[in-house]
Amino acid sequence: MSSVNSKRSWKSWLPGVLISAIIVFVLIRLVDFQTFVAALRQTNFLYVFIAFCLMTLASLARSAAWRELLDKKISLRDSFFIVNEGYLLNQVIPRSGEIGRAVLVNSVVEMNFFQALSSVVIERAIDLCVTALLFLTTIGRAVALDWIVPVAITILAVVLVVFILLFWAIKRRKKVEEWCDVREGKSEFFRKYISKNLKAILNGADIIQKPAYFLRAVFWILICWSLWIAVSYLLLASFVGEIPLWWAIFIQSILAFGIALPSAPAGLGVFEGTLVAALAVFHIENEVALSYAIVMHVVQLLTIGVLGLVSLTIQGNSLRALVVKVLDRLRVRRSEKGE
Known about the structure:
0% strand
């Protein structure tokens, strides 16, 4: 059984590793090494330190937003630690941070896994809305990528439809639960794996009906995005000089789309390739763009690493134990799907 799980794990990682490898190869072919090194030497370490501080504040804002979506059932301190641990986990196992956060919530307050996960899903849906809006407000000035406008509009429309459906299901929760009860009597699989989880998700998504909590969550998420944009602006300006603010907004929205692609752990290659492609719109030399991308990525990884490890230590957790818990949860989900 362990060998089968190992093969499945490798198969799930392989596409991301291949994509990262291809992008790294292309980047190496695109840049002149000596020019790249010269550009990298322009790194302003004072700006790097300021960027680290801004990223830390962004993580705190993100924690405040998630706490609101959890109906303030955990403290800001615990929310901050868990968010940092989730970010760290994402660098080890791509796309696992959300599950890690839902698992960790239960260590500080009694909450159904799917109820906690629904709060993270709502948070990600808000992020998608923000990403699409930022992109749509800046793409008109970056005509080289106007072909992707329909993609952003589609994503925004899908997210809004999901919110509407969630709101409808919450408003009619009693009928939805009654429908689940009827289905439970007809299907053992539905009763065991779908019904209770669907009810938990609706319970967790109930926050949408609490305008004060939901709007505060949106506010803190916007603060988080503002800090990320500030980091992009600050570090890019240190390489190319004064730039319009909308450049940083556009770059941050493109980065959000890019890192959604499968990749090797820590987003290696995909992160850098996305930023180089985005900066090509502004005719920034590949060597300068790659230098900026690497510094941006280092700042991100440094922030995630420091905050994540400190959070794990304070909460008495270990990265290894967290990885095991998440892999167990993933195995459970695969078995429920019959994989």
